[in-house]
Amino acid sequence: MELTNKRQKSQYLRLITFLLFILSIVFLQTSPHVLAETPEDKGLAIAIEADKRDLGYRSLTADMLMILRNKHGQESKREMRFRSLEIMDDGDKSLIIFDSPKDVKGTAFLNYTHKVGDDDQWLYLPALKRVKRISSRNKSGSFMGSEFAYEDIAGQEIEKYTYNWLRDEECEGMDCFVMERYPVDKKNSGYSRQVVWLDRAEYRTWKVEYFDRKDAHLKTLTFSGYEKYNDRFWRAAQLDMVNHQTGKSTELQFSNYVFNVGLSDADFNKNSLKRVK
Amino acid sequence: MQHFEVSIGPWVIKYRWWIIAACLIIAAASGSGMRFLTFENDLRVFFSEKNPQLQALEKLENTYNKIDNVYFILAPQDGKVFTRNTLYSENDDLIVEDLVSDALSLDAEEISRIRAIVLSEPRMVSNIVSPSGHVTEININILPPGKSRDEVQEVADYARKLADDFRQRHSEIDLYLNGTVMFDTAFTKATKDDLKTLIPLMFLTLVIIVGMALRSYTGTLITFIIILFSMVTGMGLAGWLNIVMTTASGVAPTIILTLAVADSVHILATVYQQMGMGVARQKAVSESLRINLQPVFLTSVTTAIGFLSMNFSDAPPFRDLGNIVAMGIMAALVYSILFLPAVLVTLPIKSTRKISNTSEICHSCNRVADFVITNRQPVFWALAVLIIIFISGITRLELNDDFVKYFSTKYDIRRSTDFMQKNLRGWNFIEYSLESGEPSGINNPEYLSKVEEFAEWFRGQPKVSYVSTYTNTIKALNKNMHNDDPAYYRIPESRDLAAQYLLLYEMSVPFGHDLNNQLNVNKSATRMTVFLKETTAKDHRALDAKARQWLRDNAPPHMFTYGSGLSIIWAHISKRNIESMLGASFGALVLISVILILALRSLRLGIISLIPNLAPAFMAFGIWGTLVGQVGLALSVNVSLTLGIVVDDTIHFLSKYQRARREKKLQPAEAVRYAFNTVGTAMWVTTLALVTGFSILSFSGFAINSQMGLLSAITIGLALVLDFFFLPTLLMTVDEQK
User: Fold this and answer.
1) Nearest by CB to B439, which of A76, A127, A188?
2) What is the ipTM of this complex?
C-alpha cells in the first residue's frame, strides 16, 4: 500500500513535472507573442475597450454652455442643447439646438458621424426656414467660432484614427495610458497627431494634446467633473480647450445629462430639424 | 581748473606707461560688451509705449488678431493669372469649398469659369487679384510664438528659400515677397548694411582728412586708434547695458567716429604747432594739454548734453542713439586727454613743418580774418539777411513719414511694395473697429447698413484702393443663400437672418479661415480696413480726420473711433517727436548756454553765442524746405544732435577771442585775428571731418538715417560759415560800440 502510494505519488509528481514542462513550453512559446504585442495593437486595443465601455447608451440629452475667451479675457457665451443617438453599425447621430444668443435661437445642427468617409452635416436656419447642407470636408473648421474644431466635437469613432500606445504614466492621480492617434483622413484633418491620456481603470479621457499639420503643439483639451450615469456611462461636466498659438480658449460645460431618453431615428433627420424645439 | 590744466601734462608724461596700460584695459573690457549686441527686427520699435496711436493699435489687435504675414505676389510674365500653371501654385478658398482644389486637371472652360467667379467677387478684386487678372498674391498669416527675437528672421529666411525654389521652377512667373515679416527683417538688414558699409567708409574718409590736415603718419595713426577705441567703448558699453541695435541707433558708431576725431585733431594740431616753433616734444605735449583741456572738455560735455537730450524723444531708437553716442564722446574725451598724450611722448614723432611765427601758422586764416575785419559791416548785414531768408524756407517743410519709402530702391522690400502698389493694391492702410454698442450687435441690419455706408463713403474717396469689411461677407452670403441671385447681394433684412448666415458661414469654413480677424469675441464690433494707394502721411492724416468727421455727422456715437494701423502711427510720429523734442532741445540749449557763460565767465558772450549756435539748424530746415520739402522723423532730432556739435566751434573761437582780449589786452579786431590764427585751422579741419562724416550717413539706404546725415551736414557746414563770418562781425559790432 505504501509502495503503491509511493508509486502513485511519484507518478503524480512525474505528471505534474510533465504538465509544468508542457505549460512552460506553451508559456515560453506564447510569451514572445505577448511581448510582441506592438504599440499599435495596444493603442488600438485601448481605443476599442474605451469605445466598448460606452456601448448601449442608446440615446441621451444634455444642456451645453459654451464660453469663448480671447487672450485678454473678453468672453462670449452660447447656450445649446445636445441630443445624441447611438447607431449600432455606424457612427452616432447628434443634434445641437441653439438657444442663445437670441438671434440664432432655434438654429439646429445635425450631424451623422460615419465610421468611414466624410460625415454628413446640416444646419437649419429658422430665419430662412431652410435646411442647408454643410461641406463636412472642412472638419478642421472652428465649431461656432470656438477653439473646438468639428473633428474635436464629432463622434470619436475608432475607425477615424490609427493608434500608437506610448507609455503608462500617472495622470490626475491615477494610472493612465498615454497613446497617440493619427487621423486617417490626413487631407482634411487639421492635425498631424493627437496625444491622449486615459485612465486604466475606467478608460475615461482626461487630456488630449493636438498637434497641427506642422506638428507644432496647437491646443490642449482637458476633461473634468466626470460623473457616472445609469451606473455605467461616464461623462465629463466640463471640457476646456486652450489654443496655445493664439492664446484663445473655449470652455464647454455639460449639464442635465439624461440617458436612454427614447429618441429614435425620426428625431434625427432633415425634416425633424424644422420641427425641433 | 587752471592748476589742473598746468599739472595734467607733466602728470600724464610721468605715468604714461600706466595710462597706456589702463586705457588698453578699459577699451578691451568695455569693448568686450559688443558681443551682447543684438538687432531688433520690429518696425514698431520707433513707437514708445506712451504713443496713443500705438495704444489704439494694440487695443485693436487685442480685440481682433495681430496680423503678421508674408505675401507672395505672383506676376506671370504673360500677364495671365488664370492659367493652369499659376493656379496650381495657389490655394484660393471660397466659402464652402475650395475654388481650386486640383488645379492641374482643370480644362480651359473651368479656368475661365474660375476667372469669372474671382473677378466678379468684390472680396478678391483689387485685394488678392488685380482687376485685369494679371497679378495675384498668396497671403500667409504668421503667428510667431513670441519666445525669441529670431522667430521673424526664421520665417523670413524660409519664405525667401521658398521664393527662390519657386523662381527656379517657374521662371515664367515673377515673384515678389512682401508683408510685415519681410518689412521687419528689412529693418534689421538696413541696420546691418549701415554698419557694414558706412563704418569702413567713415574710417577711410577720416584717415584721409586727418592725414592731409596733420601731414603726419604717426598723428594719423594715433587718431585712428583713438576713434577706434572710442567707437569700441561706446558700442561695448551699449552691449553691457543690453541696448538693442535698431536702424536709427545703428548709425551710432559712425557718428562716434566723426565726433571723436575733433578732440585728437585739436590736441595734435597744437603739439605740431609748438614743435614747429622749436619747442621740445614733452613740453609741446604739456602745453597743448594746458591750452586744449578746457575747450576739449567743454566741447565734449556740450556735445554729450545735446545727444543725451535725445532721451526725451518719443522714439526709443533715438534715445539709444543719443546714449550710445554720448558714451562714445566721453570715451573719446578720456582717450584724447590721457591716452593720446601718453602715446605722443612715447612714440617718436617729429613735426614736418618749421614755423617760427604764430601769425604764419595759417595763411588762409589770415586772409579770412583780413576780409572779415575790413568788410565787417557789409558782411554782417549780408549774413543777417541770408539767415532770415534761409530760415523763412521752414514754412515749406511738410512732415511726411512713409516707412515704405524709408527704404531706398536698393532694398527688395521697397521694389516689391512699389510693384504691389502699382499692380495690386496699396500697402498703406487705416483700420477702424466699429462698435455696435451691444453683444451680437453686428447682426443688426441698421448697424450693418451704417458700416456699409461708411465703406461706400471710403470707396468714393481718392486714393482708396480697397475696403475690407464684414459687410462684403454678409452680402455675399445673402447672395449665395439665394442661388447666387445678384439681386440679393445686399445686407440681410432681419437681424436673425444675418446672425444665422454668420453662424452657417462660421460653421462652414476650414481651419484658419474664420472671421476672428474681422469680428470681436462677443460680436459687438467689426474691423474695417481701408487700403490706400500712392498716399503720403499727410493724406493719411487728412483722410482719417475726414473719416472721423463722417462718423460724427452720420453714425451713432458708440461707433465713433479714431483710425489706427501702422500707417496712421507713422503719419503722426514726426509731429509727436518734434513736440517731445522741442522742450528737450530748448533744455539742452539753456544748459549748454549756461556752461558756456560759466566757462567764458561772460554773460554777454554767452548771449551772443546763441545766434551762431541756433541759427544753423533752422537755416538747414529752411534750405531743406525749399529744396526738398518733405521731411520725416530725422527732423525732430536734428537740433539736439547738432546743437552740441555746433557749439564746439563757437566755444573754440570765443575762448580764443576772450583770451586775446583779457590776457593780451587786444582790441576786438585784433582779438578776432588772433582767434582765427589759433583755432581757424582746427575749426575748419574738424568741420570738414564732421560735414564729410555726416554726409557719409546720407549714403544710408534708410531714409531716416540719410536725412539725419544730410540735415546735420548742412547744419554743421552753415555753423562754420556763421562762426567765420557772422560771429566775428557780431563781436566787433557789439564790442566796439562800447
Assistant:
1) A76
2) 0.77
